[in-house]
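Hi R.,

Here are the chain sequences for the assembly we discussed:
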Amino acid sequence: MIHISNIFLALILLSVLLSLRSNRLMALVKLMAFQGIIVSAVPLVLDTAHGLTFNLIMFFLLLILVKGLVIPGMMSIAVNKVVASREIEPIIGYHASLFAGLIMIIFSVYITNHLNLASLPASHKLLLVTGITTMGAGLILLMARRKAITQVIGYLMMENGIYLIGTALAKEVHTQYVVEFAVLLDLLVAVLVMGIVLNDINHTFDDVDTALLGQLKD
Amino acid sequence: MNIFFLALLLIGVGGTQALATFRLYSLMKAGAVLAIIAGCSFGAYDAAARLLQHAEPVIYNHSWLHIFTFSLKIDAVSAFFLVPVFAIPAVGALYSFQYLHDAKRAAGTAINYFFYALLIISMALVVCANNLISFALAWELMSVSSFFLVIYDVHKKATRGAGYIYFIFTQAGALFIFAGFGFLYSHTGTFGFEALASIPDSAKLIAFILILIGCGSKAGIMPLHIWLPYAHPAAPSHVSAVMSGVMIKMGIYGIVRFYLLLEPTSVVFGQIVIVLGISSGILGVVYAIGKQDIKKMLAYSSVENIGIILLGLGVGMLGAASGNKTMAAFGFAGGLLHVFNHSIFKSLLFMGAGSVLHQTKTGASNELGGLMKTMPVTGRSLLIGSISISGLPPFNGFISEFLIYYGAIHGLSLHGASFVLSALAIIALAVIGALAGAAFTKFIGVVFLGEPRTDKAAKASEAGILMGTALSVLAASCLIIGVWPYHFVQAAFLVTQAIPLVSDYTTAEFMPLMTNISRTAALFILLFIIVTVLRKIFYIGKEVTKSGTWGCGFTQPTVRMQYTGTSYADSIVDFFRPFIRVQKNYSGINKIFPGKTTYSSHTHDTSEIGLNIFVVRPVLYLLSKLRWIQHGNIQLYIGYIVLAIVVMLIFL
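And here is the predicted structure of the full complex:
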């Protein structure tokens, strides 16, 4: 039986692979917005979902608002205002990244089996796989792209992955959301800081290439 | 316990308010000093009362997030250490009011007071900690706050260097202590102190050695003492007084506490401690003679006194292990009393040296001279401190060294290695005493007697009244303990009852001896006063003329012809040549009409050279080979992280 949550997970995986392949900054930002909304909504469609309280609904609405609108909005402003060239300029090529993403999926399946979590429901197993893949892809993005803004996107993707892993592993739902909320706040601040730093890097080096930061080592 | 917390609160408030009110410079200082003194008085009073009334140990527990319990306990050992922990910093705070006088550095001074308060609090917590985690926390707090105190003059390069050296040593020491704790935890499975006595003997020895190294680097045991001669001269004088007088004793406390908790039965513990005591004591004082900077010299003298304390503790441990009650009781009592006494006279000496530094702006003894006439209060207090530290009656240093001698002499009834070490301890104590006398006659003679060698020394005037008061209070305490030692010795013996072997040991037959010492000292002081008064009476109405020293017929003497500290020390330092490296630069006289001739000499610390060759250089070499790892490329750094995660996920 195809459960609706599996469709969501497939969408997330697709967005992950696409983000590794995409060569335009703006497209990447839009992808992140899409991914953010889907990821935020995943706990709602799980078969283990409990009854929705008012607080929970407010929480999900806020999550979707921040991940789907606020953060991507800020990033698109940054792309339009600060970044002169909209090319992504990869260190590791698009095809190689895509391939790495595919390997990441296999690796995640291996890890999930390796962890041997007997108490995990079957549907959560796929969720865990998706989560680890998303996180790994975020790391690949961090490592393989040169622009400061892609670093932030990689960081966001890792956060999405952690959120999924948390959803898969957490038993007590409410405490998890408290932690999630704190992380979200962190992320928001991080994106804000990124905006400022990006501006400063741009002022100092006339570019947002993080390779230039290498000059700052002692 | 409530008074204890009240004391900590007052001290903390005093330090913290300084940060808020530093714009009003004198008010900030007055507030901080008063609050710290008030808090310290409460704390010291509470601890002393507890000790003299034989109070039952009190325990305070506070569990935090179910992760660990913050546990404090004040028993006799803690109370004994708490007295100097509170008393000496109070005097230091009084002294600091006039010592820190640069209103332009108001913020720096405020930070100094904040960490000063933090240091007192953390030291009090160290001696009261009742489980491994509490001890480790308090220990770290103490190390960090004292580091910030050392780098008060942060704009000077030498001070920053000294700060880093201190930081490296204190953190490396902490590493050893934590390793020891981890080792203990692996055997007991609990952070509590109670279970430590039940672990196997071989494990006890390993844990004790790890903690000995860690605490030893704080206390300044010989090969680990390198930070002392850097950090003490760099720190402000009231800070070096507290650090040298009290903080390094926390290392001794750690050794004593864990010895008591482990309850070892082997003689090896005592033997190790005695050997370390001999090396620290003798070499410390030899270096003290060799150094011409007064605060460096005092720092080495701290190493020497740590050696004496270790000798006492070692004799006690040897006695406890071989079942000799007298030896155990007297060794420990002597060592502990010396902790107390040293905290008094060493802080006196450091503050006195600070006054000299403050008034003349130089710490090089060969640039000073003749200060006894211009700085009478400082000079006389330092004279008392010097006699005390040399272990001469009727001052306090004599009392504690006497107890150690007494214990060590009882050790001569043992056999084998223990006999040899007891004999060596006695010889070492005698050698240390004589050399300390030489070191401090040099100190007093070169700095305070003779004629001023430079302008700076000639223009010096007496330091401020509060600084003088602080010195006088400490000097008076030296005399009081020397003349009426009864209660202090009694308190030290009370602490030794924590050792199972001597818990029922009575000192009744020994205490009359203390009364005799007390009477003799009083008699000596009475004679001294009578002679002084008689001299005054005989000289009434007689003309007293002052003239220069007889120059053996030489008519043009200059101040440069005085005996210098270097020349005084030369023959003694020469004798210890294998252990102390002296570098002499002498241009020589090789013409009939000699031109300008120069001579300079420096003494180098052998353990510092050894550390440089065997540790620092190989590590630097190795690390320079690894420099390529830090290339500044963020993406590759992230790559390292990914690699580490993948490896851990797959293989662990």
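Residues 4-216 of chain A form one domain. Chain A touches chain B at residues 91, 107, 111, 114, 136, 139-140, 142-146, 151, 210-211, 213-217 (CB under 8 Å).

Let me know if anything looks off.

Best,
T.
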